[in-house]
Amino acid sequence: MGGPILDIRGLEKTYKGGTKALAGVDLTINKGEIFALLGPNGAGKTTLIGAVCGLVNPTAGSIHAFGQDTAKNWREARRKIGLVPQELSFDMFDKVIRQVRYSRGMFGCPPDEARIEEVLRSLSLWDKRDAAIRELSGGMKRRVMIAKALAHDPELLFLDEPTAGVDVELRRDMWRQIDALRAAGVTIILTTHYIEEAEEMADRVGVINKGRILLVDDKEAIMAKLGRTEAHFTLAAPLAEIPAAFAHYPLTLEDGGLRLIYRGGDGTGKGKREVAELAQTLAGAGVAYTGLETRESTLEDIFVDLVERGEVEAAA
């Protein structure tokens, strides 16, 4: 993985009326990585992308892309950036291939029919090249949006909720396409509500809420830092209190003493080891249980927890 391809410092955006969409965002994206930006509606994800792509004028802060200050060299930087927006936007009566050609020309690239064909084939659109866009399914229309974004061979690609509203099969297909783009050296930033996309694809994950970045880290580091294991022991007989022998475990009693709940670990396997030790200790102490359920926290658990706390300090 290379050095920074995008460096954002102190980025702020306040809209007319006083709505603060970005509140001092610092973010560095490395060349060749897939970065997932997670956040609820209204968190600032689309505004952040718009600022980098020249669609939104920041109130304060700086954006450097490919080593260039975008405020001074916006056109040069923008030629290397592709954007697949949330909203479908094209001439619905135009043919697929004409729209993709147009996008390539719009960024000043010379005509290249071989490259257009390559892009369309990679997205399973070649057979639909002469179809009017209005005749396509919703999933195919979204593929056309991706084709348009790739037509000028960007080095940095933004995917704003790329699989919103598409079926599971198409979503999986898009993940494969994203992986192929990364293999070709394209740096990808995607925003998503689908936590499994971040877990499946991303090298690093950022969480944004109310215009602030709450956390940015490697996916594995986030799981290790904020992950936990949860185990529910269903006891054969109720306990009035947790025996002293188990005092060093993070345990609580629920359901009238019939459920012993373990919440611990750190996402590195410690929780699983402790649950195994706890099961042995329970048996040795004569505390019988009739059932055991365990689960590891997911990025979704971490995301929800951070957003509910809503503070930058929550990530510390």
UniProtKB/TrEMBL annotation:
Keywords: ATP-binding, Nucleotide-binding, Transport. GO terms for molecular function: ATP binding; ATP hydrolysis activity. The keyword Chaperone does not apply. It comes from the Bacteria. It comes from Aurantiacibacter xanthus. InterPro entries: AAA+_ATPase, ABC_transporter-like_ATP-bd, ABC_transporter-like_CS, ABC_transporter_ATP-binding, P-loop_NTPase. Coiled coil: none annotated. Gene3D superfamilies: P-loop containing nucleotide triphosphate hydrolases. Residues 6-235 form the ABC transporter domain. This is ABC transporter ATP-binding protein.
